[in-house]
Amino acid sequence: MMTRDEKLQMLAAELGFPLDAEIKVGGKYTPILVDGDLAYIAGQIPRVGDQIRYIGTAGETITLEDARSAAAISAVRALALVRNVCSSLDAIVATPRINVFVRSAPAFTEQSEVADGASNVLATVLGDAGTHTRTSVGVLQLPKGAVVEIDFCFRIRATR
């Protein structure tokens, strides 16, 4: 049976996301903040190294399937951040909430289906601990023109 960390490694490889790469941030903030038993993850876009993988608008220049892949990369980034701080994804006890923002064409109404890309990653890697509440909304614009941005909240075991 694969560990959570091995599952993350497998999904990251499928998505072309090297887990040993630096998680770049686009401003003066921290990408992860641990407060007690909660780990808050700043909004993650589908950035791999210096490249934003999916730039465009869902339902216009980006297909639903590509938008789902963008959401999956965002989830992998979030899990990698937790793993980097906690040494293992076994530290994750629960996933109370994710918020999914989809850069959407005016007639695009499949934000929930885009969010499934991230939800599927959390379920695959974390099992029951990946069950979460979520909000998925369409927006006009996102940082760097990315098609998706997702923030996460994880309940973790004490890291010290």
From TrEMBL:
Family annotation (InterPro entries): Endoribo_LPSP/chorism_mut-like, RutC-like_sf
Gene3D superfamilies: RutC-like (3.30.1330.40)
Coiled-coil annotated residue ranges, if any: none
Domain Endoribonuclease L-PSP/chorismate mutase-like, chain residue ranges per copy: 11-135
Top-level taxon in the UniProt lineage: Bacteria
Protein name as catalogued: Enamine deaminase RidA (YjgF/YER057c/UK114 family)
Organism: Paraburkholderia rhizosphaerae
